[in-house]
Write a structure and sequence with these properties.
299 residues, Uridine Diphospho-n-acetylenolpyruvylglucosamine Reductase, domain 3, Uridine Diphospho-n-acetylenolpyruvylglucosamine Reductase, domain 1, five-stranded antiparallel β-sheet, 27% strand
Length: 299
Amino acid sequence: MNALAGISIRGRIRYDEPMSRHTSWRVGGPADIYFQPADVQDLAGFLAGLDGGTEIHWLGLGSNLLVRDGGLRGVVIATHPGLSNLQRLEDGLVRAEAGVACAKLARQCARWKLGPAEFFAGIPGTVGGALAMNAGAFDGDTWQRVAAVETVDRAGRIRTRQRLEFEVSYREVEMPAVEWFVAGLFDFEEQADASVAGIRRLLARRKESQPIGLPSCGSVFRNPPDDHAARLIEACGMKGLRLGGAEVSGKHANFIINSGDATAADVERLIKKIQDQVRVEQGVELVAEVRIVGETLAD
């Protein structure tokens, strides 16, 4: 591939890699190039040598991503497991690289008796994705704990940026430049009652109301102001609605599950149908949390 000519890397490269292997919906066509960097410096070198016109897509655990059936052109950079360094610094500061699973961050902070960090256990992705969208769970949001971040640009330059350089709101983060997150510096406090057992109790409570263990992306839509997407969808009688192999969960209406044979097109059609019906019946425009990328097979 010309896009990789002359690049020296230590990570893994694959071509025509099915994205269905890497997304939590278990759907998605092939990526032209799939790269797993060995570490941050390997990533920086890869970006510095990459052809400037090559499209770049980022992947953590694939839990907030719908890749269309025609796949992705350009390069997919998978931050997990290579960018998985997690360390405690001075005081309550914790540095977590972009490929660290949010659940791992929560558990380790509990072992260090730092918090509040339990809410990270409810985010089904990595630190990089959580930083990019200000992900949240259990009434906590990622950027409530951010002190600073480390970013990389297309030229492979790594910078440290402070919290105040970013515009942060509900499930949105505005970057000051075209850069991507490679690590977050989180500020926690000593929390004597923090425990892994406490995290398990939170997750058990979540399992009672959400279809955990089935192929999904977590919450599909953002909650509108002073309301819940699940309530609006349920009010339209759409629980259990199925298009192809994609189905609105009967357990939680803001989850779409792959019942076993769904395509990305099935999922995308169901997302649009939900939005259309909620708009007509409830007068509310539901905004998708999930990122939809790639080409349809018709393209």
